[in-house]
């Protein structure tokens, strides 16, 4: 094991560049997939005519496809029909599509878990369907959503490593290049990757627990 060689200034900087891109891709994908997922989840919960069945079909379709296939589709198939994106944008788009479908189901499940009696009480007190959803259902549904949402965000962060298959220069891609320099670099680099992923995911877990306590 050659820790000194593996973590030379050039190699360490190269690995940190990959880690930075991993965080950027994950952060943007989390924001976009959360926004889209909430909208789609609410539409499914509200059983909007026409829209809800369409959303149901799309969510079930995407949820049952491998993420790797979606990455390949966005990167290689969409340009064939005139939709061209840069490598980073394509990775974000693929992750967003996949994760939004997962989050939509989490949101729908969280909203469905709200006690029906409270919804009926809100409606009988004069609140509209939208007001009931906004003031009663969403705040309470959030309590049920926090743990699975954070788990999904953690999965998204780890899933960014799949983008190495299309040569996105994220952490795993750059790590493979460094490990290819010398066999003795393999263990030090893998240990560093494990520490970086663990640190970020553990931080997300801590945030999740605190949010659970606040919403309890």
TrEMBL record:
Which keywords belong to this entry? Cell membrane, Membrane, Transmembrane, Transmembrane helix, Transport
UniProt subcellular location = Cell membrane
The answer to whether UniProt assigns keyword Transmembrane helix to this entry is: yes
Membrane topology listed for this record: Multi-pass membrane protein
Positions of transmembrane segments: 20-43, 55-78, 90-107, 185-204
Q: Which domain of life is it from?
A: Bacteria
ABC transmembrane type-1 domain span = 19-208
InterPro entries listed in its UniProt record? AA_ABC_transptr_permease_3TM, ArtM/GltK/GlnP/TcyL/YhdX-like, MetI-like, MetI-like_sf
Q: What is its main location?
A: membrane
Annotated PANTHER family: INNER MEMBRANE AMINO-ACID ABC TRANSPORTER PERMEASE PROTEIN YHDY (PTHR30614:SF41), MEMBRANE COMPONENT OF AMINO ACID ABC TRANSPORTER (PTHR30614)
For this chain, the family text in UniProt reads: Belongs to the binding-protein-dependent transport system permease family.
Name it. Glutamine ABC transporter permease protein GlnP
């Amino acid at each position: 094991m050659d820790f000194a060689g593996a973590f030379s200034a050039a190699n360490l900087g190269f690995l940190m560049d990959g880690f930075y891109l991993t965080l950027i891709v994950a952060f943007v994908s989390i924001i976009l997939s959360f926004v889209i997922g909430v909208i789609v989840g609410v539409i499914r919960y509200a059983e909007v005519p026409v829209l809800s069945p369409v959303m149901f079909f799309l969510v079930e379709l995407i949820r049952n496809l491998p993420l790797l296939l979606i990455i390949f589709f966005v990167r290689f198939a969409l340009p064939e029909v005139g939709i061209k994106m840069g490598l980073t944008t394509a990775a974000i788009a693929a992750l967003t599509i996949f994760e939004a479908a997962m989050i939509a189901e989490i949101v729908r499940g969280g909203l469905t878990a709200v006690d029906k009696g409270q919804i009926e009480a809100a409606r009988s007190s004069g609140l509209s369907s939208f007001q009931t959803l906004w003031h009663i259902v969403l705040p309470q549904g959030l309590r049920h959503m926090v743990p699975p949402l954070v788990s999904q965000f953690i999965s998204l962060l780890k899933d960014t490593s799949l983008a190495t298959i299309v040569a996105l220069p994220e952490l795993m891609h750059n790590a493979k290049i460094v490990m290819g320099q010398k066999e003795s670099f393999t263990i030090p680099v893998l240990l560093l990757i494990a520490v970086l992923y663990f640190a970020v995911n553990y931080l997300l877990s801590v945030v999740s627990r605190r949010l659970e306590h606040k919403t309890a």
